[in-house]
Amino acid sequence: MGKIFNRPEALTDAHTHYCPGCTHGVIHRLVAEVIDELGIRKRTVGIAPVGCAVLAYNYFSCDFQEAAHGRAPAMATGIKRVRPDLVVFTYQGDGDLASIGMGEIIHAANRGEKFTTIFVNNAIYGMTGGQMAPTTMPGQKTTTSPLGRDVSLTGMPIRMAELLSSLATPGYITRQTVITPKYINKTKKAIKKAFTYQMEGKCFSLVEVVSTCPTNWGMTPIEAVKWTEETLLPYFKLGEYKIPEE
Amino acid sequence: MAKVLMKGNEAIGEAAIRAGCLNYFAYPITPQSEVAEYLSKRMPEAGGMFLQGESEVAVGYMLFGASGAGERVFTTSSSPGVSLMSEAISYIACAQCPVVFVNIIRGGPGLGGILPSQGDYFQATKGGGHGDYHLLVMAPDSVQEAVEMVMKAFPLAEKYRNPVMILGDGLIGQMMEPVEFPEYLSSTPTNKDEWAANGMDTRKSDKPNLVKSLFLDPKALNDRNLLLKSKYDRMKIEEVCYEAYNTDGDYQALIVSYGTMSRVCRTAIDFLKAQGIEIGMIRPQTLFPFPEEAVSKASEKQSCKIVLSIEMSMGQMVEDVKLSVLGKRPVKWYGKCGGEVPNPEEIMDVIKEHI
């Protein structure tokens, strides 16, 4: 019987540092599968963020640059403007993209930069140890909101897909999740679409992926999936928010 | 090529194109906005790329990305803008990417003013961003020299894989002078395929390249810092540039001054000479590496009673002058930094006070 399931060529064989139950590994694999299927590994440059995915370059077998917190969209802009033939993607978390890098992502999207952003939203700062993020849910306990996020003091969680899709510039903006196989398949399709729009020179593309952080949420992986379904998804609604006109 | 009359800022933009740099990211700020205005038209004409970023913070990383992809790239800004870029400059220095920065200094701190100053000496020569790093810093005293330094900056940035900064001031940027452009420099970065994240296909390689500044292993980080230090040490041997003025004979005092300020000092020296008073001057053209040896030797002349660091800042370069003189002569500072350029008579009075 032949081998029917391989590691994508765009992934290395390194063990990841991600916590058990975290879905970064799944999302990495989907990006890698898409890169393989599109045959673009040798002309792809990824940009690693500051945050849990800072070491992403150890797991992908393509060229990589490493950004400062939030600045990946500016770096991607720099690369794509001087080398439009490259395929460029940023891989960013919610603290990176929705907090410190808010300006960079909005302006890159508004200029219609032809790169792809994979935005992993797990409603908390993972790498720095579970502090409140702009996407933290009302009442959610974190190390900097120990009594639960008080929205009268800190506002409501920012919905990036909705915010970015309000821009008049054409773009592909979608929100997906990877908590079950059905969603995983849909997310892969969205990532492939995002890369394809970039390669066709059509528009900026962003795939928000609602993810889990069992470690910092203080849950088992199964509880984390349940909490995502019951708490995150009703607020961070899945779907395609913006599609470029044909 | 014949001499043309050009504004400093526009000449700087033109020099970059003639140096083979066809990528320019920038954000407008007085007193250097004319560079962006000039290049917004000239870059497309020359087949190049200009993008106005949303902030200096973003521009810093656009430069980082473009340079990390192996392309020649530069920006121009002024003091508060360079402060915002300093975060990126630290990352760029650690990741060893060649980027050219032009800082047309205005008065500070804070919003300060928009007139000429040399108040960014510390920021340019001692770091500015976090961590142990240096830029190679050059300081022109004329539009002509600004052009020449911009054209030298790109190969130097690539030789060392290190950011290079041209430190001018509002006067250099705003004044018009006749300028002759050196021969077109068509060199291209030669070693970029070894390190740049420019796509494996581009360099026909099966090994991914990685441009990064994170070294979690303390030994690896120490090694990176030692590698950076070895480059700075090499710059100190190979790249020191200065001009000596009126130092052949005896002189009663030695002036150390750079950029616009040194032009005023030169006039003061000429006026004093007419009165029978001899004063020498060392004008650093590189501020990092600083011409320590030249200043030290010039200060040792028997007739030289005092060394004067004359700056449009509140005594920043004077620290490097003191480190060069090492107590062999008294070192005094004189300067102004509200945006007013001291005039030759004022400098003559200061010199006379001390000799």
Please provide a written account of the structure.
Chain B: Keywords: Oxidoreductase. Chain B: This is 2-oxoglutarate synthase, subunit alpha. Chain B: Pfam families: PFOR_II, POR_N. The complex is a heterodimer of chains A (246) and B (355). Chain A has 9 helices and 7 strands; from the N terminus they run αββαβααβααβαβααβ. With 246 residues, chain A is α/β, with parallel strands linked by helices. Chain A has a single domain, classed as 3-Layer(aba) Sandwich (Rossmann fold), CATH 3.40.50.970. Chain A has a 7-stranded mixed beta sheet with strand order 2-1-3-4-6-5-7, sandwiched between helices. In chain A, helix 1 crosses helix 7 and helix 3 crosses helix 4. The N and C termini of chain A lie far apart (43 Å). The mean pLDDT of chain A is 97. In chain B, the strands form 4 sheets. Chain B has a 5-stranded mixed beta sheet, with helices on both faces. A 5-stranded mixed beta sheet of chain B has the order 10-12-11-14-15, with helices on both faces. The model of chain B has no long low-confidence stretch (mean pLDDT 96). Chain B contains 13 helices and 15 strands. Helix content of chain B is 43%, strand content 18%. In chain B, strand 11, helix 10 and strand 12 form a beta-alpha-beta unit. By secondary structure, chain B is an alpha/beta fold. Chains A and B meet through strand 1, strand 2, helix 2 and helix 4 of A and helix 3, helix 4 and strand 9 of B.
